[in-house]
Amino acid sequence: MKYKNYEAAVRYDEEAEVFYGEVINTRDVITFQGKSVEELKKEFEDSVEDYLEFCRERGEEPDKPFSGDVILHISPELHHRLYTKAKRTGKTLNSLIEENLASI
User: Fold this and answer.
1) Are 34 and 19 a contacting pair, CB within 8 Å?
2) Cα–Cα distance between 35 and 17 in angstroms, integer?
3) 33: β partners
4) For 63, which of 13, 28, 88, 94 could close a Cys bridge (C-beta 3.0–4.6 Å)?
């Protein structure tokens, strides 16, 4: 599920007969639950809105969904090998690394 760039994972609790979810693309904890799909969607959106309002009231920036920027420290030798392979295949270093990570 997605709402305002926040993405949630949802599960079903058979014993309680309720769907429950958590926003997964932020470090802050945002949870919600509902007995039906319609209720679940509404609760998800309400939870995101409540989170954003809570941040506004406290004067804090909400934790944004991940940007995709990652700082990676590797050995100079590996950096050189990756750069060379990228050049050899006509790719940028970033696209080579992204393609390889996406295959995991």
Assistant:
1) yes
2) 7
3) 20
4) 28
The residue whose two tokens read 């060379």 is 84
CA distance 87 to 96: 9
Residue 70 has pLDDT above 90, yes or no: no
CA torsion sign, 27 to 32 to 36 to 41?
Answer: negative
Residue with tokens 């760039």: 5
**33 closest CA partner among 7, 12, 54, 55:** 12
Three-state DSSP string of the chain: CEECCEEEEEEEECCCCEEEEEECCCCCCCEEEECCHHHHHHHHHHHHHHHHHHHHHHCCCCCCCCCCCCCCCCCHHHHHHHHHHHHHCCCCHHHHHHHHHHCC
What is the rounded distance in angstroms from the CA atom of residue 93 to the CA atom of residue 104?
A: 18
Q: What residue type is 20 in one-letter code?
A: Y
Tens of pLDDT along 14-38? 999 999 999 999 889 999 999 999 9
